[in-house]
Amino acid sequence: MTAAGAQKLAGGLLSIGQVLAALQDDFADLTPSKLRFLEEQGLVAPQRTKSGYRKFSQAHIERLRLILTLQRDHYLPLKVIAEVLDDMDQGLDPIIPGASQRNASSVLAPKRVLSSDELRRVTGATSRFLGEAIAAGLLPAAEVFPHDAVPQLTALMRLAERGLLPVTCVRFESRPRRKRR
User: Fold this and answer.
1) Domain span at residue 84?
2) Please, are residues 126 and 110 in contact by the beta-carbon 8 Å criterion?
């Protein structure tokens, strides 16, 4: 029987290897032991076959994608992620702690790019501030910005409110020392 045929018989459920393959592009360091650990922590509960094999649905994959994204991009501990997941299981769309008012549903939204005007509008940054952040190498000099630039620019603006401004690196050239007389 082919893999596709086996998948159809399992009701569209995926094996742990198929889940790893589906998430590989976004989470290259994901391993079977990490998936088993997340299950042990109660964050994901795949179905089991009679022989004990784990079978994951598309909803499990999206849940894993959220968990792994919250860990990698937002540095959230598993305890906080579990609270976010509990809220989502109750039909809520919780705010991600420390993520500039981003809801859990926005974490899984398709990534899109923003023009500099859109980036400034979303963050409230001025053209000058955005230019300084680019000149300092803190954001890419580009025609369009990845959606990840929003939290980066927002964080830079918060730092600027506290007196830490993006400045360009000043290159010092060494001068020969003068001889003392």
Assistant:
1) 3-107
2) no
Query: What does the pLDDT average to over 87-92?
Result: 88
87 and 129 fall within a common domain: no
* Residue 80 domain flag: yes
The rounded percent of the chain whose pLDDT value lies above 70 is 80
Confidence label for 2 from pLDDT (cuts 50, 70 and 90): very low
Range with lowest mean pLDDT among 23-32, 116-125, 144-153, 168-177: 168-177
pTM of the model: 0.56
